[in-house]
Sequence to fold (251 residues):
Amino acid sequence: MNIVIIEDEELTAEDLAHQVSKYSDDIVVQAVLPSVQESVIYFKNHPAPDLVFSDIQLQDGPSFDIFRTITLPSPIVFCTAFDEFALEAIKNNGIDYILKPFSKGDVHAAIDKFVQLRRNLSQSSPNMQKLLGDLAHIKKVTSILVYYKDKILPIRLEDIALFFKQNELTYLKTIDGRSYAMDQTLDHFEQIAGSAFFRVSRQVLIHHRCIKETVHMFNRKLEVIPSTAIDFRIEVSRNRVGDFLDWLTAH
Fold:
């Protein structure tokens, strides 16, 4: 089994390569790649490995940029210190998701999953259902990490009222009225927040618990009245009204 590791922390990469190699004598770590740029160059010029272990946050950008740049058929085990990227990991060939600091058990369990998936897909039984069932066990995002002064605060998704964009900055606002400036984009939060949130416009992603009522406007738009105090109007884009009402009914 050929494996490639994408990791920019040298000691972590060495430890991961050691743990991977201990799984089986048949495993070969073909390369350890420290950046998005080097990874793209490597995969353009080498055959795809059987499996990739990849950190998410590299020095020159998120590793997701690698897989947006090239088409890589290899399944990927994502490794990170934070748990907020699970949904995006699934969209990038992710078959598992392990948190740092990881143990030998975490690494070997991820390889076990890959071996089992490959075995299932090589058989003639209904493999797709099994594959989807296994992927369903990937960790779901439950909290967003907020960096506030010298603290790192985990904010549960269920406690978030909305994400919004104002003056080119993205903010998170909690049900109880606290606001935090965020480094990530509104598009990023839309990808990871789950079905409890709805993107009503380019500026606002709102949790259904935050919606007090909606009001018809003269131009066939809707205005959302939130239960949390805000200093701007939330309007549902006209082309999103139907989807919004369907979503609101489902919640």
Remarks:
- The chain has eight helices and 17 strands.
